[in-house]
Design brief:
The complex is a heterodimer of chains A (352) and B (287). With 352 residues, chain A is of the alpha/beta class. Chain A has helices spanning 11-18, 47-51, 61-64, 84-91, 103-115, 123-130, 180-188, 198-214, 224-230, 235-243, 249-252, 300-319, 329-332, 340-347, and strands at residues 4-7, 23-28, 35-39, 68-75, 79-82, 96-101, 132-137, 163-167, 172-177, 260-266, 272-279. Chain A has two domains: 4-65 and 75-214, no CATH class; 224-347, no CATH class. In chain A, the strands form two sheets. Chain A has a seven-stranded mixed beta sheet, with helices on both faces. Chain A has a four-stranded antiparallel beta sheet with strand order 5-4-11-10. The longest helix of chain A has 20 residues, at 300-319. The N and C termini of chain A lie far apart (49 Å). The mean pLDDT of chain A is 93. Chain B has 287 residues and is α/β, with parallel strands linked by helices. Chain B has eight helices and 15 strands. The two termini of chain B are 20 Å apart. At the A-B interface, strand 4, strand 10, strand 11 and helix 12 of A face strand 1, strand 4 and helix 2 of B.
C-alpha cells in the first residue's frame, strides 16, 4: 500500500527533515495573522492552524503569483537584458514544498493553474508550479461559519497535490499520496511513517464517510450563471455598491482572483530597470480606464457587479470551472460586512 | 468567422523582443508614425501579421501599451505603428529619436477579416486614430481590388488638424471602385471645405449605393462611436454577422491572463480585438 501512517506528534520531525532539501512553506503566525510563509524549522510552524482549521489570510496563490514579481529586466541602451524565461528558471531553481494546504486552497491553485496554461503558458507561474510539491491537510468539516466549500464543490480536489494528510484519530494521520512525487517523498522519509493497519484503513474510510455527512451545501450553484446574467440590471447590485468600500480586500484574499497590472521600475542610475507585475483589483477605478480618459467601467456598481460576473459566469463558461472555492475569506476580511452568499441569494431573488 | 487565437511563439512571450526605431514621421501635431525593426534581423523575416492585429509596445522605463499595427502586412522586414500622444507611454515615445530602442510583443488578436471576404463590397468606418488600423486593412483590399467589389471608406476626425494621411485622399478619389468620404466634427478655424459633423452624417452619401446582402462593414474608432455607427448599419440592413468592430480595452498582458480587457467570457486580446456584431450582441458591457 502506498499510503502510510504518521503520528501527529511526528509532524514536526517530518517538517524538520523536509526543510533540508526544500523551501518549506507552511502556516505560521509570522505577522500575527495566520499566514503561509517560509519556515526553516518546525518551531516556526503553527500546527494549531492546521488542526483548528483556520485558513491563512492570503491563500496559496501568493507562491505561484506573488503580489509583486519581476517579469523581465532591461537597459535603455541594450533593450531586454534578462527575459521572463531566464528569470523563471532562476526563481524555480529550488524545490518548494507547501505543508498543510487546505483542499479549497488546492482547488484554488488548480483554477489558476488552468487559466495560466490556457492558450499561452505563463512561464513564471508554470515553472514555480512545476517545482512545487504540495502536502494537503484534509478538512473533515466546515472549518468556520464563513466556509461554503461544499456549495462550490471545492473540498475534494482530484489533483493538484502530492500527498493528502487526513486525521483518522486524535493521534494519527494517514498520508495518502496522489502523485509520483508524493510516493517518492513517503519513501524518502520512510522512517517517520508507519504501515497502514486494517484498523487504520477502516478509521480512514470512516473519516471520509464522516466528511461526506458533515459538509452541507448552502445553495445550488446549478443555473447560477444564467440567473446572474438575467439579473444584470437588478437593483441588488446598487444596494451592495452603497455598502462596499472598494478597498479590494476581497480580491487580494481570494484564491481565484488573479488580475494583475504591470509597471516599470527604473533604477536609480536611470539606465536599467525592470518590468514588474503587481496584483490589481477590478474594484479599483483605473482597472478599465484607458489612455484618453474613457473608463469602460466608470460606475462603482459596474465594478462591484463585474467581480461577481467574472467569478460566477465568465470563469465557469470559459474554463468549465467554478470561479469561487467557497473559502469565505472575502467575507472574513470585508470591512463592510458584505457576504458573497447574501449577494448571490438576493440576486436570485431569495430573501434572507 | 475564422478565429485566430494568439499562439505561443517567439513574439508571444511575456518578454518583449528588442526593436529599433528606424524612422519617425510626423502625421499631425500629436501623432507620429514610427517605423520599427527588430535588432535580431532573423525576427524581421518571421514577423507576420494581419491588418487589425496589435502589438504590445514597451517604452523601457515607462511601461507598455497595446498599439495596432499601421503598416500593410505585405511590407516585409519592418513595420509601422501610428501613435497619438494620449498617455504616459505614448507621450514618452514621442520624445524618442531614430536609433532608440523599444520592446515589442505580439502580434496579438485576430485582425480584420479582409481575405475572408473576397468578392464582397467592403465598408470601412473610421473615427480618429482608428483610421490607422483600418487603413492597414483597406489598403490590403485596395492592393488586390480585383478580388473585391466596391470599397467604401467613411472617415471622421474631431478637427481638420487631426486628419491623417490627408494626401492619400486624391489617390482614392481617382479610383472608381473606392468611395471615400471624410468629415470633421468641428471646424473652428474655418479651414475645412468638406463635410462637417460626426461620422454618421456621411451615411446619407452612400446609402443608395450599398447592397446590404453583399456588404461587410469594419469599424474602428473611439468607444462612443460604435453605438451610433451600428444604428446606421442596421438601418442599411447589413446583417450583424457582417459587421465587424475592433474594440478598445485596457490591456496589460495581451495573452488572456491579466483580465483588464475582459468582456463577459471573452478577452479582447485573445478573442478580439475584432468581433462581429453577432458575437457581442449578447455580451453585456461590450458596446
Amino acid at each position: 500500500m502506498y499510503s502510510k501512517i504518521i503520528l501527529q506528534k511526528d509532524l514536526p520531525k517530518l517538517v524538520d527533515e523536509l526543510v533540508n532539501d526544500h523551501i518549506v512553506v507552511a502556516p505560521t503566525k509570522a505577522k500575527n495573522v495566520p499566514t503561509f510563509s517560509e519556515v526553516r524549522s518546525s518551531e516556526e510552524v503553527e500546527f494549531s492552524i492546521l488542526f483548528n482549521e483556520k485558513l491563512p489570510m492570503i491563500p496559496l496563490k501568493k507562491i505561484f503569483l506573488p503580489s509583486q514579481q519581476t517579469v523581465f529586466k532591461y537597459s535603455l541602451s541594450e533593450g531586454v537584458t534578462e527575459s521572463c524565461e531566464e528569470l523563471a528558471a532562476r526563481v524555480a531553481e529550488k524545490k518548494i514544498l507547501v505543508f498543510g494546504a487546505s483542499p479549497c486552497d488546492i482547488t484554488g491553485v488548480n483554477v489558476l493553474n488552468r487559466i495560466f496554461h490556457e492558450y499561452y503558458t505563463d512561464a513564471l507561474f508554470s515553472q514555480i508550479r512545476d517545482r512545487t510539491v504540495i502536502i494537503g491537510m484534509n478538512c473533515l468539516d466546515h472549518c468556520y461559519e464563513n466556509c461554503f466549500c461544499e456549495t462550490m464543490h471545492s473540498n475534494d480536489p482530484k489533483s493538484g497535490y502530492d500527498i493528502m494528510l487526513t486525521p483518522i484519530s486524535k493521534t494519527k494521520l494517514i498520508a495518502v499520496p496522489n502523485s509520483d512525487k508524493g510516493k517518492a517523498l513517503l519513501r524518502t522519509h520512510g522512517e517517520i511513517f508507519q504501515e497502514v493497519t486494517t484498523k487504520d484503513h477502516q478509521a480512514y474510510l470512516k473519516a471520509l464517510e464522516q466528511k461526506r455527512l458533515n459538509f452541507k451545501s448552502e445553495f445550488p450553484v446549478e443555473g447560477l450563471a444564467s440567473e446572474i446574467e438575467d439579473n444584470f440590471e437588478s437593483s441588488v447590485w446598487e444596494e451592495f455598491t452603497k455598502k462596499c468600500l472598494f478597498c479590494g480586500s476581497c480580491t487580494f484574499v481570494c484564491p481565484t482572483c488573479y488580475c494583475f497590472s504591470t509597471k516599470d521600475n527604473l533604477s536609480i542610475d536611470l539606465k536599467t530597470g525592470e518590468r514588474i507585475r503587481d496584483w490589481d483589483s477590478c474594484y479599483y477605478p483605473e482597472f478599465a480606464l484607458v489612455a484618453g480618459g474613457h473608463n469602460f467601467r466608470e460606475h462603482q456598481s459596474q465594478r462591484f457587479r463585474y467581480r461577481y460576473l467574472h467569478k460566477f459566469v465568465d470563469i465557469p463558461r470559459r474554463y468549465n470551472l467554478e470561479g469561487c472555492v467557497g473559502c469565505g475569506r472575502c467575507i472574513t476580511y470585508c470591512p463592510a460586512n458584505i457576504d458573497v452568499r447574501d449577494v448571490l441569494k438576493m440576486i436570485r431573488g431569495v430573501s434572507n | 468567422m475564422t478565429k485566430t487565437i494568439a499562439k505561443y511563439n517567439d513574439f508571444g512571450d511575456c518578454t518583449p523582443q528588442t526593436a529599433k526605431i528606424v524612422d519617425i514621421r510626423s502625421l499631425t501635431d500629436n501623432t507620429k508614425l514610427f517605423e520599427l525593426q527588430f535588432t535580431d534581423s532573423q525576427l524581421n523575416e518571421r514577423f507576420t501579421y494581419k491588418p487589425g492585429q496589435f502589438v504590445l509596445l514597451s517604452v523601457f522605463g515607462v511601461g507598455e501599451v497595446p498599439i495596432s499595427i499601421a503598416s500593410s502586412p505585405h511590407k516585409k522586414g519592418l513595420f509601422q505603428l501610428g501613435i497619438r500622444m494620449v498617455g504616459n507611454v505614448t507621450t514618452k515615445i514621442h520624445q524618442l529619436k531614430k536609433g532608440d530602442l523599444v520592446g515589442i510583443r505580439g502580434p496579438y488578436g485576430n485582425g480584420f477579416p479582409v481575405e475572408e471576404n473576397k468578392g464582397k463590397d467592403l465598408l470601412f468606418v473610421a473615427g480618429g486614430i482608428g483610421y490607422l488600423p483600418l487603413r492597414s486593412a483597406f489598403r490590403e483590399a485596395v492592393a488586390k481590388k480585383a478580388d473585391f467589389g466596391k470599397i467604401f471608406i467613411l472617415y471622421g476626425d474631431r478637427c481638420p488638424t487631426d486628419v491623417l494621411f490627408a494626401e492619400e485622399k486624391d489617390e482614392y478619389k481617382q479610383q472608381k471602385e473606392i468611395i471615400f468620404h471624410q468629415t470633421v466634427d468641428r471646424d473652428d478655424d474655418r479651414c475645412w471645405d468638406g463635410n462637417i459633423g460626426v461620422v454618421t452624417t456621411l451615411f446619407p452619401f452612400i446609402k443608395d449605393e450599398i447592397d446590404p446582402a453583399n456588404t461587410v462593414a469594419m469599424i474602428c474608432g473611439p468607444p462612443i462611436m460604435y453605438k451610433f455607427v451600428v444604428m446606421e448599419l442596421e438601418k442599411l440592413k447589413i446583417k450583424p454577422e457582417n459587421i465587424y468592430l475592433s474594440l478598445e480595452r485596457k490591456m496589460q498582458c495581451g495573452v488572456g491572463k491579466c483580465c483588464h480587457c475582459g468582456i463577459g467570457d471573452k478577452f479582447v486580446c485573445l478573442d478580439g480585438p475584432v468581433f462581429s456584431l453577432e458575437e457581442i450582441q449578447g455580451l453585456l458591457e461590450a458596446l
